[in-house]
Design brief:
Layout: E1 8-13, H1 22-31, E2 35-40, H2 50-57, H3 75-78, E3 85-91, H4 93-101, H5 107-114, E4 119-123, H6 127-131, H7 133-144, E5 148-149, E6 153-156, E7 162-166, H8 170-181, E8 190-195, E9 199-201, E10 207-209, H9 215-226, E11 230-235, E12 247-250, H10 254-264, E13 270-273, E14 280-282, E15 302-304, H11 308-313, E16 320-327, H12 331-342, E17 346-351, H13 352-355, E18 360-367, E19 370-378, H14 379-401
Parallel strand pairs: 1-2, 1-3, 3-4, 4-5, 8-11, 8-13, 11-12, 13-16, 16-17
Antiparallel strand pairs: 6-7, 9-10, 14-15, 17-18, 18-19
Helix pairs in contact: 1-2, 1-8, 4-7, 8-9, 9-14
């Protein structure tokens, strides 16, 4: 039986070399629980076979407007009905021009014209074609018509040249589509998130830090964006791409993170402290590298860093506050003590030895109602569950305040 809550996307392929990325895109979309129906132009079939995409999507691929597998004989009408979005990737310069002028000379262009659902396109073409005034006019026009344009990017192209026009990667498209389709549980909410570690210098080259990859914090930021929130992300030093759509401030030390939080907190509805902030910093860090030959033994005086989450929660009119607790033992007890001590509405607890650096996580949510365990899953999935729980608590808080 088909799951009525499952999102459905019609993925259209046009004739460009970037069509090879469609195989990965189908996989990425289905991994996110999205059903994919593929429609290909005749030119697209010259780059990748329908059999490949049928095997990956689990659905028959359509290429012909007169396909008899559609009972009514009107594939250009029926295929888009019940679809949450049409995504064309790659979208060639020719196809984009068709959209501008309402041309409908094959199944995919006819579907785009007869649709009742949103349309997203990922342009892919040679840099000269992308830069051409006609293409730029066409891109501007389809945006005015409500079409969502994903990319393109600059990079190596199949022609051997380098420049703008390269289709963005499958993971980026899947992330954008997933965000577009996600329930907007936090629509209009302003969310401030801290993520990653802080680094407290000892001298010019050494420092004290907490172990953190930033993956969980960045996943929470993406999930909040998917939920329709306006997201500001304050990040310690990590090696991760910034979540598309977030306003990102890069910091290094706990003091810098604290100052950045102070600048933004006044216009924040929800504060989520995911960052692994170092508890201590060196009292007087050295300006230059300490030479071992000069100081074979070294004593450091450590002083406490500011409690950022505690400071936010103690404001006269605090935002909704959620914190993260990484423990190595006594997880529930220590995390709940932290939640009560800091007076925050939600604490997300995980075992440090199982979470740091991993791509998946298993967490416990602690709030006034008790504990709620989330099974181990990719951090993106866990982040969406956390955001859904925050949205529920935040909504209840707002209703109570009225």
């Amino acid at each position: 039986m088909t799951d009525p809550s499952r999102k459905k996307v019609l993925l259209g392929l046009t004739g460009g070399i970037a069509a090879y990325k469609a195989a990965e895109l189908v996989r990425r979309l289905t991994e996110r629980g999205i059903e994919v129906q593929v429609v290909m132009t005749e030119a697209a079939c010259g780059f990748i076979t329908p059999a490949t995409l049928q095997a990956l999507s689990g659905n028959p691929v359509f290429t012909d407007m007169w396909d008899t597998r559609v009972a009514s004989g009107m594939a250009h009408i029926e295929l888009s009905r019940g679809t949450d979005a049409i995504v064309v990737a790659p979208a060639t310069a020719d196809f984009i021009a068709k959209l501008v002028h309402g041309l409908a000379d094959d199944l995919l262009s006819t579907l785009a014209l007869a649709r009742e659902c949103p349309l997203l396109v990922a342009p892919a073409m040679n840099r000269q074609m992308w830069d051409h005034p006609a293409t730029q006019r066409n891109i501007a026009q389809i945006k005015r018509d409500g079409v969502i344009v994903l990319g393109p990017a600059s990079g190596d192209q199949a022609c051997g040249e380098v420049g703008m026009g390269r289709m963005i990667e499958a993971e980026e498209i899947a992330e954008a589509v997933s965000a577009f389709l996600a329930p907007k549980l936090l629509a209009g909410a302003r969310v401030l998130i801290t993520a990653g570690p802080t680094f407290e210098p000892i001298d010019a080259v050494r420092g004290i830090t907490n172990r953190s990859s930033g993956k969980m914090g960045y996943a929470v930021a993406r999930a909040a964006l998917e939920a329709g929130a306006e997201v500001t992300l304050i990040s310690g030093p990590v090696s991760l791409p910034a979540p598309a759509g977030a306003k990102v401030t890069q910091v290094e030390t706990a003091a810098q993170m604290f100052e950045a939080v102070k600048r933004h907190v006044a216009r924040t509805d929800i504060y989520i402290g995911v960052a692994a902030v170092a508890d201590y910093r060196v009292d007087k860090p050295r300006q230059h590298k300490i030479k071992k030959t000069v100081e074979p033994q070294l004593q450091l005086k450590l002083v406490p860093n500011p409690d950022i989450l505690g400071w936010v929660a103690a404001r006269p009119k605090p935002p909704f506050c959620a914190g993260f607790a990484a423990e190595s033992r006594n997880l529930d007890a220590y995390a709940d003590q932290k939640r009560r001590r800091k007076n925050v509405q939600l604490m997300v607890a995980n075992l440090a030895q199982q979470a740091i650096g991993a791509d998946d996580n298993e967490v416990t949510l602690l709030d006034d109602a008790g504990t709620h365990r989330l099974e181990r899953a990719p951090k993106e999935v866990v982040a969406r569950q956390i955001i859904a729980h925050i949205a529920k608590l935040y909504g209840a808080k707002r209703r109570k305040a009225k």
